[in-house]
Amino acid sequence: TSMEVVLHYRPYHRDQIKLQKFAEAAVKEFPIRQLPRFTPWFPNDLSRLPLKPKKQPPVISCEEAEELKQLSTTSDCVTGSPDYDCTKNLLEFQSNVTHGQTLIQAQSVHRSIKVESQGELPPNGREKLKRSWSVSLPCPKLKEKILPLSEELQNNLERLKLHAFYRAKWTIEQSICNNQTLEDIWVKLNKLIKQNELPSCNATIQRSVGQIWIFCDILYCEYVRNILREKLCLMEKMNLIVHKFGIILSL
């Protein structure tokens, strides 16, 4: 294939050899660096964790937690520097605002604070939906239950040059919940994770988009899918998604 190149140059740059080399360098194919094959930074020995804390996490009672909560609420006061100007944001101390404007604006601010304190919904009538997370703990007893990866998944990993310790994501939507609400599925899923039935998993419910995301290592993804189908009574297929690679398996 031929390509026409138009080179614009200044009048005093008339060296044809230099101009030709410059044009050839401009249309030269850009080099592409081959990314190295992914390898985990920790040993592939699944019988022990790469990092293990020396001490157990601290445990506090419900009474202590309530005391800390009360202390945190009572200590939420603004402590400014000594030269802090307390009149900076007050309307009545602004030179370009009249007394009538100050009264009207102060009343509107008071009404907005009162609405927030009463917990009323915003004008559009919708609550601000929050995300929730649930994280699993490692369980070495599951090692014997986990079967080797299927031939289809192994072929996909080899084709895409993905390691078994890449993180992947299963997505649960309302359409596969089998007459259950997404919140019901989320409660059941939390129990599974707390009981260490889903290895390497952490999950989040995205209420704003109506989905539950379950993240796990590809090594355990088929085992996790079977547990989800059995315990949560899910219907139809679920897609396994890897970031930047898209769907790599439907199960």
Automatic annotation (TrEMBL):
Q: What is this protein called?
A: SHLD3 protein
UniProt GO BP? negative regulation of double-strand break repair via homologous recombination; positive regulation of double-strand break repair via nonhomologous end joining; positive regulation of isotype switching
InterPro entries from the entry?
A: Shieldin_RINN1 (IPR039996)
Top-rank lineage group of the source organism: Eukaryota
